[in-house]
Structures are given as C-alpha cells and as structure tokens.
UniProtKB/TrEMBL annotation, chain A:
Membrane-topology descriptor: Multi-pass membrane protein
Keyword Transmembrane in annotation: yes
Localisation per UniProt entry: Cell membrane
Domain of life: Bacteria
InterPro entries given in the database record: ABC_BtuC-like, ABC_transptr_permease_BtuC
Assigned keywords, A-Z: Cell membrane, Membrane, Transmembrane, Transmembrane helix, Transport
Family (UniProt): Belongs to the binding-protein-dependent transport system permease family. FecCD subfamily.
The name this protein goes by in its record: FecCD family ABC transporter permease
Pfam families named among the record's database cross-references: FecCD
Membrane-spanning ranges: 26-48, 82-103, 115-138, 145-163, 169-192, 220-239, 259-288, 327-348
Automatic annotation (TrEMBL), chain B:
InterPro entries in the cross-refs: AAA+_ATPase, ABC_transporter-like_ATP-bd, ABC_transporter-like_CS, P-loop_NTPase, Siderophore_ABC-ATPase
Primary location recorded for the protein, binned into one broad class: membrane
Domain ABC transporter: 19-254
Keywords: ATP-binding, Cell membrane, Ion transport, Iron, Iron transport, Membrane, Nucleotide-binding, Transport
Keyword Coiled coil part of the UniProt annotation: no
Domain of life: Bacteria
Protein name: ABC transporter ATP-binding protein
Length: 353, 285
C-alpha cells in the first residue's frame, strides 16, 4: 500500500478533564480577534455622540467602575442601541450560517428563504391597516411580536412547501425566493394603498434601523437570542456530519431530519427576532457566514465566527452611519454598502490565488 | 479493525447471517420497488448485488442499512430488528458508503475521514487519542495518508473513492455496505478500489456492495445476489450462479460464459448484434 510509512497529519486533540475537542489554532485565533474587534466597536459606538466619552471611561463604566454621569449616558441612553446592534448582528450571522449549511448553498439566507419579507409584510400591515380583526390582533401583541410571528409563519410555510421526502437545497431556495416575492408584492401593495403618513413610518421600518431602541425592546431580543444560541450549541455537534450529505449523516448515526428541523427553526426564530428588533437589515445574514468562512479558512460556515462577523458588520455599519456620513442613513444601507464589496474582494482574491 | 466477531454468527433462526432481510416490501410513495424479498448476508465474505437497471439493487442496500424503512417485513442485524435499534448503535455496527457522495469544497481528507468517528463521540468528548489512532489507521489502510492535508475536491476520482471508503473504515465497523463504489471510475481505478475492498475482506470485514459490471462482480465476490424486478432471482457462488440461462433471464442478455483466463471464476462475454463472428461456434464446426 502507498504511504503507510508517512505519518498522516490528523488534527491534534485537546483534552481538559472529560472534555476533548479538535484543536484548530487558526480558527481559535480568528474567533478571538473577531470577538475583540466586535467588543471594541461596541464600546466605540457607545462613546460616540453629542456627549463624547473616551474609550477607557466607556469600558470602566461597563465594568461597573465608572463615574455617575457616564453611567447614565452609557447604561441608560446608549447601551440599548449598541447592544441591539450586537445581538441583531449575532442573530443574523448565526441564522445565515445555519441556513447556508443546511441548504449546502451560500444563497440560502433568511432573506432568500422568505423570513425577512414575511416579517416585513406583517409589520407593514400592522402600520398601515387600521380596523378589522387582523389589525386589532397586530395592535394587541405589538409590532415586534407580530413581525416575529410573520417571519416564523413564512419560514415554516417555505419549509413545508419545500419538503418532499427530505429537503433539497435548491428546492428550498427556489420556494423561498418565490414566497419572498409574494410577500414583497403584498408589502408594496399595502404601501401603495395606505395613508401617506403611515407609509413614511413603514418605509423607515423597512430599511432597518437601530435608532431609538429602548431597554424593553432589546431585552426580548437579547434573551431570545441567548436561549436560541444555547439550543444551537447543543445541536451543533450532531450537525457536523450533515455537511457531507443526508445519506452519510444517516450512516454515521445522525437523525438528520430531527436535527435539521430543530436548527432551521432556530435559524427562523433568530432571524425573526433580529427583524423584529431592527427591521429587515439587508445582507448581514448572507455575507457574514461567507466572510467568516474565508477569514477562518473553513470549508463550511463556522457558527461562532459567523455570529461575530455579523455583530462586527452591524455595529460597525451603525457607527459609520452615525459618524462618517454627512446625512443620517439607516444602518441597512451601510451594511449592504460595506458587506457587499468586502465579500466581492474576498471572492476575487480567492480566484486570483 | 475489529475482526472475526462471533456475535453475528448466532442468530435466533440459527442461520449464520450478520444481516438479513425477511419479507421486506419497500417503495417510494405508491410505487413498490421491492416486494416480499428474503435475503441473508453470510459473514466474512464479499456479497455483491447485481441486476438490471431499476431492479431495486440500491433500494435493497439502503433498506439493509436502515436508510429506508420497509413498509412490510424486517431487516435483522446481528439477530435484532434494525428498526428497533438506535440510529447511533446501528452506526457502530454497520458502515455505509452511499452512491457518489459530495464533500464541501475545501474540506481536507483528514477532516473528512475524522467525521467517521462521529458515532463514537459525544458532545463533551469530540476528539480523543483513540479517534486519532483509528483515523490514521483508516488513512493508511486505504493508502491516502499522503493526501491527508489535501482538499478532497482536488483529488482524482479514484483517490476520492478511497477517501470515502476510509471514512467508512474510520467508523470502526466490520460490516461495510458500499453502493456502487466504482461508479465514474475508469477500469484501472475500479480494479484498484475493488482490490482495496478485497484487502478489507481479508482483514475480516463482511462486505455487501452493489456493482454494475458483471465481470468485476464475479471476480471480486464469493456470494452473488441476482435481482430482477424487486425480487431475488438467484443467490450463491459466482461459479454456481453465472450461467447463460440466468443472464438471459435476469438481464435479457445473450452471452457466453467462459472460464476466466486469469482467475478461477466464470467470465461473461456478451453477444451483441455487431462485431460477432464466434457467437455460435457449434454451427461452424
């Protein structure tokens, strides 16, 4: 046999007590770097404003050792917005990593799977239509919860329509895009027939924004995201063989239908929470996993790194939107403007290599 | 590799089979592909399922590996009904290589083969020194140690198939089910892969595979299962099974069966409509 004398390079393992895992230094390094960068931008974004606070004072305040004046500005006024950016970014990044892994296709993201526009259509319905049982229902639960429900229902609808003795990536994406188009059409129709003042409010919601977040709004997104991330972490181990296809996964003892259903539900809920907290912020869920994959040199989207890239992209874009641009622009516009070229750059560089 | 496990030899019915289908009926939706089929896989030999296109070969293999659930009947693995076992426990006993699997772009050979350890791992224990040793052995046995750091998508078809077999070996089972392991390979690479399968058999594995090529099936297996229209037409050693009558009955193929000049098995020489002079030598002499 060939090559039996050469020692194969199997990834080294790390053991800590009863816990063992594969040691991937580069992935660990990139993840730590991304986490540090996201935290730095998060602190910077808190420091910037009409009453500027220096970075060391922001960090001291977050750690509970700040001055009283700073505490009010940092914790009560600016923290909700910055935290919303972080949480929404992580939720979108992880959601995109899950959908892209399940469909084994980079085109699959909450945007193309109908979740974003489903949530958007329900939210616009809530803003523009008054009277009637449905509008009363939206009013009673609040706009955010209604948007979340809209995203969830559309996501489940796409899943069940795409299900035919299993899930095929292309079929999922095609049905997702079709359902998205219908939801988009409904949104446009609602906007066209609505009162002009409502339209302005709905438009502002539709581009995605972190303006005027309150602690109450952020708290729901924060806890919801934490719970969902815990579920994803538990299931992620069972998901690993599924990158090799359903048959291989089944052969390796994975109940892939159950794992996929749980993860897809988590992805839909994460995206729904994000949309309900910040509106449909474009492009983060699509671009973050792809950027994370290339930075970490992984063949499949790494979950943690994808979430961190999402957080970095969203908080960074929000910071740019508030400081560098002459007019105030919604964050969704900046995420697309920064994320798009960066992904193109990574793809072109990979082609030249 | 764990070899010569005796657990499988004694089953309740007393037949010496590791794996058996008992009266299974399998279909997709309303379409029945396999109807009331009985087959027993003897331990320690290579069993090859052959038959015309669409006769249910792959469906049978998928049913035996629990990928498909039969509508009627049972599949018995080491004396137990496979439907009652946990998926994970099945994966510890039975390795499966499906037809033409695809790896994500950029995944390295060693990472792919390492996934074969999944049934033996848990959320907390994701990688142990045992795992590393088994993966290294699986890479060495299939002769792909040199390629360990290469991305799977940069390899040739033959190398790639060795890597996938290596993944199945890393699973550490002595029962291997291979669905058309030579598809898309040229003859030299097909022989190469089948020699590897024979090595595995000699190291103690029980192998069940589906092959298209009759002569390769005859050469490399000790037990042939010939299927037609969802049922077993004949089963046994190639010398007993491969006859002109059977080939005509199973495939509708006119062929001559001669002695393999380099082996001790029969050789199938098909008779088509062209380029045939010696089809009926009896009439000439």
């Amino acid at each position: 046999m060939i090559g039996t004398d050469v020692k194969p390079s199997v990834a080294p393992g790390v053991r800590l007590g009863g816990v063992s895992f594969v040691w991937r230094p580069w992935l660990a390094f990139v993840t730590c770097l991304l986490a540090a960068a996201a935290f730095l931008v998060f602190c910077l974004s808190i420091g910037v404003g009409d009453f500027p606070i220096g970075l060391p004072r922001v960090i001291a305040t977050i750690l509970g050792r700040g001055e009283h004046v700073d505490e009010f500005v940092v914790m009560d006024l600016r923290m909700p917005r910055a935290l919303a950016g972080l949480v929404v970014g992580i939720a979108l990044g992880v959601s995109g990593a899950i959908t892209q892994s399940i469909a084994r296709n980079p085109l699959a993201s909450p945007d193309t799977l109908g979740i974003t526009w489903g949530a958007g259509a329900v939210a616009v319905f809530g803003v523009t239509v008054s009277g009637g049982a449905a509008a009363a229902a939206v009013d009673s639960v609040g706009l955010s919860a209604a948007a979340l429900a809209g995203g969830l229902c559309t996501g489940l609808l796409v899943y069940f329509l795409a299900w035919r003795r299993g899930i095929d990536g292309f079929r999922l994406i095609l049905i997702g895009i079709s359902v998205s188009a219908v939801m988009e059409a409904i949104t446009t129709w609602l906007l066209a027939t609505a009162d002009i003042r409502d339209v302005a409010q709905a438009q502002a919601w539709l581009v995605g924004s972190l303006d005027n977040r309150s602690w109450d709004e952020v708290r729901v997104a924060l806890w919801g995201t934490l719970v969902l991330l815990a579920v994803v972490t538990c299931v992620a181990f069972q998901f690993k063989p599924m990158h090799l296809g359903d048959d291989i996964a089944a052969g390796l003892g994975v109940r892939y239908s159950a794992v996929r259903a749980v993860l897809l539900l988590c992805a839909v809920l994460l995206a729904g929470l994000a949309v309900s907290a910040a509106g449909p912020v474009a492009f983060v869920a699509l671009v973050a996993p792809q950027v994370a994959m290339r930075l970490a040199r992984c063949p499949t989207p790494p979950m943690t790194a994808s979430g961190l890239v999402g957080a970095l992209l969203l908080t960074g874009s929000d910071l740019v939107a508030r400081t560098a641009l002459p007019v105030s622009v919604p964050v969704g516009v900046v995420t697309a403007a920064i994320g798009g070229p960066f992904l193109v750059h990574l793809l072109v560089r990979a082609n030249r290599r | 590799m764990v070899a010569h496990s005796i657990t499988g030899i004694k089953t309740e019915a007393g037949d010496a089979s590791r794996l058996a289908a008992r009266g299974v009926t399998v279909g997709y939706g309303a379409r029945t592909v396999i109807d009331d089929l009985h087959v027993a896989i003897p331990p320690g030999v290579i069993t090859t399922i052959i038959g015309p296109n669409g006769c249910g070969k792959s469906t049978l293999l998928r049913t035996l590996s629990r990928l498909l659930k039969p509508a009627k009947g049972t599949v018995v693995l080491d004396g137990e009904d496979i439907a009652g076992l946990r998926t994970r426990d099945v994966a510890k006993k039975l390795g499966l290589l499906p037809q033409s699997p695809v790896a994500p772009e950029g995944l390295t050979v060693s990472d792919l083969v390492a996934r074969g350890r999944h049934p033996h791992q848990s959320w907390l224990r994701q990688w142990s020194s045992d795992d590393a040793a088994v993966v290294e052995r699986a890479l060495a046995m299939t002769g792909v140690s040199d390629l360990a750091e290469r991305p799977v998508d940069t390899l040739s078809g033959g190398q790639r198939q060795r890597v996938w077999i290596s993944l199945t070996l890393a699973q550490g089972t002595d029962l291997l089910l291979l669905d058309e392991p030579t598809t898309f390979l040229d003859l030299a690479h097909a022989i190469d892969v089948l020699d590897l399968v024979n090595d595995l058999h000699e190291s103690g594995c029980t192998v069940v595979m589906v092959l298209h090529d009759l002569n390769l099936a005859t050469r490399y297996s000790d037990n042939l299962v010939v299927m037609r229209q969802g049922s077993v037409l004949a089963q046994g050693h190639p010398r007993d099974v491969i006859t002109t009558e059977l080939l005509h009955e199973a495939f509708g193929l006119r062929a001559k069966v001669i002695d393999d000049p380099v082996g001790d098995r029969p050789l199938v020489v098909p008779i088509g409509r062209t380029h045939v002079q010696l089809a009926q030598p009896a009439t000439k002499s």
